[in-house]
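Q: What structure does this chain adopt?
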Amino acid sequence: ALNNNGGTSAMCVQLSWDGGASWTATKSITPTNTMTTYTLGGSTDTWGRTWALSELGTGSFRVRVIDASSMSNKDFSLDWAGVSVDYAP
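A:
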């Protein structure tokens, strides 16, 4: 949620497979000032790459959430981020 609707704002998400050294292309949503659930990706979305099982472990897999706004006084609120990984070799 946002503290106001002024300006242009986005919440962006990237995934890493190597502990944060490399990142997928960004997926983004335009948040509102109401509590809302957003889903990025899905069970058939590979985020633009072929994944190996070893890249999905706690030492390798990372999720990065980036807030971006044209207003310097914008407050973003993120209550939680859930991740579900579907992997079939």
